[in-house]
């Protein structure tokens, strides 16, 4: 129900109640309106229907009180040029240019043009860059970078297609007598939500690398989809001196970028965390009540069966899944991967021939550089 519908609903209710009761005074007492108001509503409704009732609810702008068009355009341009500025700083910036407009005036113009929040001003900036291809200033770059960091800190991850970004984490399953501590290495493709899980009795850099080498990369290579970047937390199994750390060395050999979560912010890797919760509730809480496991291989067999059902049969409500299964989402995104690969080859061929490629900034944005 829209705001306008909420506003006119009591008015229509008053008219309908009076009609059913056949008594205007009683209907006004029940609904809390005066008789004069009732007859005003009735006259408007008889003459113009529901639209007339909407009109009296609207605040009509007083056009003569608005600033000139050139001032409004200057305020909008300043909002896009300096998206991080609040209304006070925007007002001061305009004053430097000889345009006098108050803080509240800036705010009113922002509201009228859907620019009242930092996020909306950034969206307007991104749209202008995409449309006009303008070169960003240092302030604009800083504002976009700040917004990106805030998104990542709250678990909002940028992902373009399957293989663009994988999320890896370690999950402590529990302790079983005769087996000992059980750790699960988890990998989730952040676009399609296709998941992989492998169990170990220790948590080290070697087990983290083995998970990728044995399970994850063979699957992606079989589908001819490259893994470009992996996001992990800052645990010792993922981070260390590159020259002496098995996981870091493996990523370097496979030419995969490594991103780390913000310190003390587990929500940054929220996709894995949420998957762990789902797996605990739908897999481990059930299978541990059904069977007594004597070794790790038996447990891995049941985990693999659940993972297969999760990927191929269970509908997912992820950002790009829209109710499809993760595997179906993965298959549907392969067309995007193919387009990106064609774009990559095109860029490389042009750069090697000394030609300048114009208007193909999508490739540089989508594919992180390897450092």
Sheet with the most strands, sense and barrel status:
5 strands, mixed
Mean pLDDT: 82
Rg is: 29 Å
Distance N terminus to C terminus? 51 Å
**Topology pattern, helix = H, strand = E:** HHHHHHHHEEEHEHEHHHH
Global outline: flat
The strand count comes to: 5
Tally of alpha and pi helices: 14
Protein structure class: alpha/beta
The helix fraction, in percent, is 55-70%
Low-confidence stretches: 352-371
Widest sheet, order of strands: 3-2-1-4-5
Query: How large a portion of the residues is in β-strands, by DSSP E?
Result: 5-15%
Describe the structure.
- With 371 residues, this protein is of the alpha/beta class.
- The chain contains 14 helices and 5 strands.
- The protein has a 5-stranded mixed β-sheet, sandwiched between helices.
- The chain is flat and about 85 Å long.
- The two termini are 51 Å apart.
Secondary-structure blueprint:
Blueprint (H helix, E strand, L loop, with lengths): L2 H19 L2 H8 L3 H23 L11 H13 L5 H10 L6 H10 L5 H15 L5 H16 L12 E11 L3 E10 L5 E6 L4 H18 L6 E4 L13 H8 L3 E4 L9 H21 L5 H17 L13 H27 L8 H6 L5
Parallel strand pairs: 1-4, 4-5
Antiparallel strand pairs: 1-2, 2-3
Quick gist of this model?
The protein has 371 residues and is α/β, with parallel strands linked by helices. Helices cover 57% and strands 9% of the residues.
Features:
single chain; 9% strand; disordered C terminus; 371 residues; 5-stranded mixed β-sheet; alpha/beta; 14 helices
């Amino acid at each position: 129900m829209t705001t306008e519908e909420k506003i006119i609903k009591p008015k229509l209710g008053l008219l309908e109640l009076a009609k059913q009761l056949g008594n205007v005074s009683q209907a006004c007492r029940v609904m809390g309106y005066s008789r004069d108001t009732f007859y005003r509503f009735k006259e408007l409704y008889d003459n113009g229907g529901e639209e007339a009732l909407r009109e009296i609810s609207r605040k009509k702008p007083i056009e003569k009180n608005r600033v000139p068009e050139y001032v409004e355009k200057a305020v909008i341009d300043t909002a896009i040029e300096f998206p991080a500025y609040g209304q006070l700083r925007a007002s001061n910036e305009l004053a430097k240019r000889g345009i006098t407009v108050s803080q509240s005036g800036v705010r009113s113009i922002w509201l009228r043009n859907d620019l009242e929040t930092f996020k909306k001003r950034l969206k307007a900036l991104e749209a202008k860059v995409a449309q006009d291809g303008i070169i960003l200033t240092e302030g604009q770059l800083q504002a976009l970078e700040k917004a990106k960091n805030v998104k990542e800190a709250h678990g909002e991850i940028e992902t373009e297609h399957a293989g663009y970004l994988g999320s890896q984490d370690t999950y402590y399953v529990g302790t079983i007598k005769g087996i000992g501590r059980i750790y699960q290495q988890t990998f989730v493709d952040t676009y399609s939500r296709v998941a992989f899980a492998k169990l170990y009795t220790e948590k080290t850099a070697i087990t983290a690398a083995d998970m990728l080498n044995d399970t994850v990369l063979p699957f992606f290579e079989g589908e001819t989809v490259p893994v470009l970047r992996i996001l992990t937390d800052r645990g010792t199994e993922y981070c260390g001196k590159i020259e002496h750390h098995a996981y870091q060395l493996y990523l370097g050999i496979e030419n995969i970028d490594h991103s780390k979560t913000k310190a003390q912010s587990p929500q940054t890797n929220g996709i894995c965390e949420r998957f762990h919760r789902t797996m605990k509730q739908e897999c481990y809480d059930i299978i541990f009540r059904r069977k007594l496991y004597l070794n790790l291989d038996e447990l891995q067999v049941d985990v693999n069966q659940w993972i297969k059902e999760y990927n191929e049969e269970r509908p997912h409500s992820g950002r790009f899944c829209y109710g499809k299964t993760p595997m179906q989402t993965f298959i549907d995104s392969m067309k995007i991967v193919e387009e990106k690969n064609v774009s990559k080859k095109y860029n490389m061929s042009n750069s090697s021939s000394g030609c300048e490629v114009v208007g193909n900034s999508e490739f540089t944005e989508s594919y992180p550089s390897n450092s």
